[in-house]
Amino acid sequence: MQEQLIPPVGDEPIPADIRTVGNAFRISLALFDRDGKILYMNRSFARECGVDADRAVGQPETYFTGDPMLPDVFLYQRMICRTIRRMDGFVFITAIPMFDEAGAIRFVGMTMENEAALNEVRRSFEALVASTERSVHIQSAADRHAAILRPLMGRHQSMVRLREFLKQIGPSSASVLITGESGCGKEVAADCIQALSSRSEQPYVKINCAAIPAHLLESELFGYEPGAFTGANAKGKKGLLEVANGGTLFLDEIGDMPPELQPKLLRALQHGEVYRIGSTKVRHTDVRIIAATNVDLNQKIVEGKFREDLYYRLAVIPVRIPPLRERKSDIFLLASYYLSIYCGKYNRNLVFPDDIEELLKSYDWPGNVRELQNVVEYYVVCSPTSEGLSCEQLQTVFRHPVTGPGRPGSTLEDKLDAYEKQLLQEALEEEKSLRRAAKRLGIDASTLSRKARKYGLALHRESGA
Ligand SMILES: Nc1ncnc2c1ncn2[C@@H]1O[C@H](COP(=O)(O)OP(=O)(O)OP(=O)(O)O)[C@@H](O)[C@H]1O
Question: Which residues form the Sigma-54 factor interaction domain (predicted)?
Fold first, then answer.
C-alpha cells in the first residue's frame, strides 16, 4: 500500500517517514489538528520552544506560546503571521490552514523562524534585490479571492461552502437573489459577489426598496424627464438603472418593491430597456442585479404581492445565508472578533469570562450578526471595570429571552440537557456523517441518534432519519 503523504487530522499517527523528513529540515515545523491540538512537531520546532516533541503531541497551542494564533486562523480561514518577542530576540511564526476537498480546514501547518535565521535570509535577499533591476509582486487569484471574502467570516461548514459558492458565481453576470434573516450578512455577501465579478471596476449602485416611498422609488430607479412632475429637477434625472449601466445594481429588501413598479422593473431586466418618467424614448442598459430579502417571496407570490415572473428573473442564482443559530460554532469566533474591534475603538481591555461565553452560545440571535455586534459593543462600553458585565446585566440588551444552558435560574438538569443538546447540534452540523459526529462526541451512532431524537435535532440523511 502506498504511504500516506498528507498528514492525517488526528485519527492516525504521523508516518515515520514524514517525521524523518520533518527532522531533516532546519526550518521549525509543527502541525495542528482541527481542534488546535498538536499533531506533530519536528525537532527544530521543539528545540526552539524548549519542549519535548513527543510529549507535545495532543497538547494545545498554548503549550508552547501564551498568545495563541490558531483561533484567528480558524476564524479568518487564512494564513496568519505573528512576531513574538522573547528574551533572546524575536521569533516569526506563520500558521497556514490546509483545506480538504469540501473547503473545511483539515489541519494547520506552523513554522517558526528566529531572528538570527531571518537575518541570514534578509542578507541573502538584499543581495538578490540589489542585483536585479525590478521586483514584481504577483498576487495570485486565490489571494485576491481570499481578501474579497474575508468580511464574510465564519468557519462553520455552511459558511465555508457559501464562500466557495460565491467564488463560483461571482464572475458571471447572472442575477442573484440573496435570502436570509435580518442582519445575517446579505449585504456583505452582495458586496463580495460584486467584488468577485468581472464588473468589479464598473459602477456598483445600492438601493433599499423599503426605505424609499413608492412614488420616489420609481423616479430613483428609472429617472425622469425635465418637468415630468411638480418639484422635479428642471434638467431631468438619470435613474439608478442607467447609472449602474455596465455594472451592478443591488436591490435590498426587494420584497418591498411596490406591485405597480414590478412590471416596469421586469421589463428593464428582461430587455435591458428603461423608460424615464415622462418619456417614451427607450434607453438601453446592461446591469447585473443582485437582490436581497428577508421575507418569504413565495408567500408574497401566493398573496399576490410579488410577481412570479419577476421572482424567476431575479432568482437565477439563489443564495441563502444561514442564520447564526444554525452555525452556533461561529458565535464565539465572531464575538471575539468584535470584542477586539470594540476594545480597540474604546480603548478597553476586556475578555469574555466562561459564563458569558456560554450565554452567547446559548442565545438564538434573532438579529443575527448585527445583534451580536451590538451586544458586544454594549459589553465593551458598559462594563464598569475590566471584569466585564455579569450574564444578568448583559442579557438586558438581548431581544429574546435566553433558553440555552447559559440561562440563569434554570436547574442543573435543565442546564446539562441544554448543554448536551448544544454539543450534539454542533457535532451534527459540522461533521459530514452521523458516524463522524458520534465519533467526535465519543459515543456510538445509535446513542447519538436516540439523543438527537430526544432533542428534536435533524439527523444526516445517510442515517435514514
Ligand atoms: N459573516 C459575517 N462576518 C462578519 N460580519 C458580518 C457577517 N455577517 C454580517 N456581518 C456584519 O453584520 C452586520 C449586518 O450585516 P448585513 O447588513 O450584511 O446584514 P443583512 O442580512 O443585509 O441585514 P438586513 O436584512 O437587515 O439588511 C454588518 O455590520 C456586517 O458587517
Answer: 152-381
